[in-house]
Q: What sequence folds into this?
């Protein structure tokens, strides 16, 4: 695949793909359990294609000639491996004075700060964490768990 097509397909250069593969491979390497295991490079390619396009896992499975459940497991495992491999280098944990700056910015930007000042700090933390994780997963944070395990908009149930 030429460099331009590679970049269009994976949204990264071939060099960046190879570097990411080198970092992630130890976390997703499996012992062969059957005659035609999915290679580490193909597992990374499936995941990056899913992340780059947002296409359904069924369509992705068909394009790679894999089962939908296999693609689902691959995406979940490789995303976790990418996080594990890159978190120390690319996601800095705040230290000392940075926490104070984060706290100050939070109270300046948050529209409900009067209400939140009366709430335990741990509740605010978990509420913000929930919103942050929702933004990563594509959720708008306006949903509540249902008995069946899905989510429904807040206020949809009595």
A:
């Amino acid at each position: 695949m030429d460099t331009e097509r590679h970049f269009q397909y994976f949204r990264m250069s071939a060099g960046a793909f190879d570097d990411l593969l080198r970092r992630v491979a130890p976390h997703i390497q499996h012992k062969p359990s059957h005659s035609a295991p999915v290679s580490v490079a193909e597992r990374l390619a499936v995941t990056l294609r899913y992340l780059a396009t947002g296409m359904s896992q069924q369509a992705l499975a068909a394009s790679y000639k894999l089962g939908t459940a296999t693609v689902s497991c691959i995406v979940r495992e490789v995303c976790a491996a990418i996080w594990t491999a890159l978190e120390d280098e690319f996601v800095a944990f705040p230290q000392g004075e940075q926490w104070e700056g984060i706290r100050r910015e939070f109270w300046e930007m948050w529209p409900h700060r009067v209400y939140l000042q009366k709430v335990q700090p741990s509740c605010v933390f978990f509420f913000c964490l929930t919103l942050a994780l929702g933004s990563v997963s594509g959720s708008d944070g306006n949903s509540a768990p249902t008995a069946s395990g899905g989510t429904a908009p807040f206020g949809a149930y009595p």
